[in-house]
Specification:
With 111 residues, this protein is mainly α. The chain is built from four helices and two strands, in the order αββααα. The longest helix is centred in the last third of the chain and has 36 residues. It is elongated and about 55 Å long.
Length: 111
């Protein structure tokens, strides 16, 4: 499956096999995550326009902080879904590698 096909399955909330832990991927927050990401993208584009327009650096920094906060909150929602669904399923199937993978993902997310 190509990356585009995989992302399309996620965007449509279609259950599918996923990674090393082989469970289906259908989360209750998928639509909410996609909406949040769309808003964050729009907000970031607005910040880019602020820079292009030569707006005050303080204003730009405040807006960047808002984008970072939106992304962090979206990440928390994804993490919640991942723990409630993926990790629970993986542990039930005896796939403890999923916990190692989660730890790596959290390390990267928290940087």
């Amino acid at each position: 499956m190509t990356k585009e096909e995989h992302e399309k399955l996620h965007s449509e909330g279609v259950p599918h096999s996923h990674g090393s832990h082989g469970h289906t991927h259908s989360h209750e927050h998928t639509k909410n995550v996609l909406n949040r990401l769309s808003r964050a993208i729009g907000h970031l584009q607005s910040v880019k326009q602020m820079v292009e327009d030569g707006r005050d650096c303080s204003e730009v920094l405040i807006q960047l902080a808002a984008v970072k906060s939106a992304l962090n909150n979206t990440g928390k929602l994804i993490l919640k879904d991942h723990i409630e669904h993926c990790i629970v399923d993986a542990v039930e199937q005896g796939d403890y590698q999923a916990i190692v993978d989660l730890e790596k993902a959290i390390d990267q997310f928290m940087k």
